[in-house]
Write a structure and sequence with these properties.
With 145 residues, the chain is mostly helical. The chain has helices spanning 13-22, 58-73, 84-102, 105-111, 118-125, 129-140; strands at 25-29, 37-42, 45-50. The chain is built from 6 helices and 3 strands, in the order H-E-E-E-H-H-H-H-H. A 3-stranded mixed sheet has the order 1-3-2. Helix 1 packs parallel to helix 2 (58-73).
Length: 145
């Protein structure tokens, strides 16, 4: 059972855009319906292009934006599209940073207990269950039902 506390969730969409701006990452609206968003670095300047037409909700925008910021903050760019190991490595780096932004360990520590389920935690942080599983493994090296 999770004890609800105000302000224990991860970053909001607005906070994510603010973080990007503070980090010098420019965000732009572009058309890229297949990938939804892209992150690139040109001459040490970082850019995120987002296609808002593909988002069904702010929930989706928040998840995708956090992931793209994760790429930018960790310099996890695809430099070799022919090398699947490179792609997996870059996705892992971006996913780890995404978890840190949306499911911060200090906030997870405050609400998790022996009766917590992945579903309840995902609902609390407003993220997919898969992200909670990644957070549990990243922070505690364990799994929950």
């Amino acid at each position: 059972i999770i004890i609800r506390q105000k302000g224990v969730r991860g970053m909001t969409t607005t906070e994510l855009y603010s973080l990007a701006a503070k980090q010098g990452i420019e965000t732009h609206t572009i058309s890229c319906p297949k990938s939804k968003a892209v992150t690139i670095s040109i001459k040490n300047k970082k850019y995120i292009g987002i296609d808002p037409s593909v988002f069904k909700s702010e929930y989706n925008e928040r998840l995708i934006l956090a992931h793209e910021i994760g790429h930018a903050l960790t310099n996890a760019y695809y430099t070799d599209l022919e090398n699947p190991i490179n792609i997996i490595r870059m996705e892992h780096r971006a996913n780890k940073k995404t978890v840190e932004m949306l499911v911060p360990k200090n906030k997870l520590d405050k609400i998790i207990n022996e009766n917590s389920t992945v579903f309840e935690l995902a609902e609390h942080f407003s993220v997919p269950e898969e992200m909670i599983k990644k957070a549990l493994w990243l922070y505690y090296k364990k799994q929950l039902p």
